[in-house]
Specification:
Blueprint lengths: L8 E2 L5 H12 L10 H13 L3 E7 L5 E11 L4 E10 L8 H15 L2 E5 L8 H7 L18
Parallel strand pairs: 4-5
Antiparallel strand pairs: 1-2, 2-3, 3-4
Helix pairs in contact: 1-2
Bound molecules: coenzyme A (COA).
Coenzyme A binds next to strand 4, helix 3 and helix 4.
Length: 153
């Protein structure tokens, strides 16, 4: 039986340890299979959480665990603001139960109140989560390109 789906709440600094545990678990498994440790995940999440304009929302799970979270930051633009969604994940055993959608809708409500005009994110093309973002109204930009250059080796 599925666990009850609750309402998202603001992520506090004290939640970062539990979020890092979840993040390391989710992104260490396919399709990501990235070698995250608790420490490296915590460092990344702490960084975004402490950034100017940082906004995080989490879905409480059972027994003090975190079922899912999102984290990003507001940034000033010409008119109003933009929101850069930096990380989002839902516990593997809770995916497909509407938690990600609830988290994202909760975020949008907050962003509208902060005069945010658009939300953007960068991710791999063709990942399974693309269908999730498209279902929420995101479109892969035809006009914009994401450039990166590796510096090691
Ligand atoms: C992507 C993710 C955040 C979505 O959260 P979720 O709670 O599983 O999504 P929901 O249950 O709210 O699903 C909403 C819709 O998206 C679709 N969807 C969600 N994940 C999907 C996936 N992996 N593949 C295809 N469709 C997916 C659902 O089928 C659902 O469609 P419906 O409304 O037509 O039924 C979550 O699956 C996750 O953490 N995945 C692994 C980490 C990841 O890829 N994060 C994003 C990196 S940028």
């Amino acid at each position: 039986m599925n666990e009850p789906v609750r309402q998202p709440r603001a992520m506090d600094r004290g939640d970062l340890e539990a979020c890092a545990t979840l993040f390391a678990q989710v992104f260490s498994t396919p399709p990501w299979s990235e070698p995250w440790t608790h420490e490296s995940a915590l460092a990344r999440l702490e960084h975004f959480h402490a950034s100017p304009g940082g906004v995080g929302l989490l879905m409480p799970g059972e027994g003090g665990a975190v079922a899912g979270f999102l984290l990003g930051h507001l940034e000033p633009y010409l008119e109003g603001k933009l929101f850069y969604l930096r990380e989002m994940c839902v516990a593997s055993h809770r995916q497909g139960q509407g938690i990600g959608s609830r988290l994202y809708r909760g975020l949008e409500k907050q962003l509208v109140a902060h005069d945010v005009r658009a939300v953007y994110l960068a991710t791999d093309r063709g990942i399974p989560a693309a269908a999730f973002y498209q279902g929420l109204g995101f479109r892969c930009s035809e006009g914009m390109a994401f450039y990166a250059k590796g510096l090691m080796g």
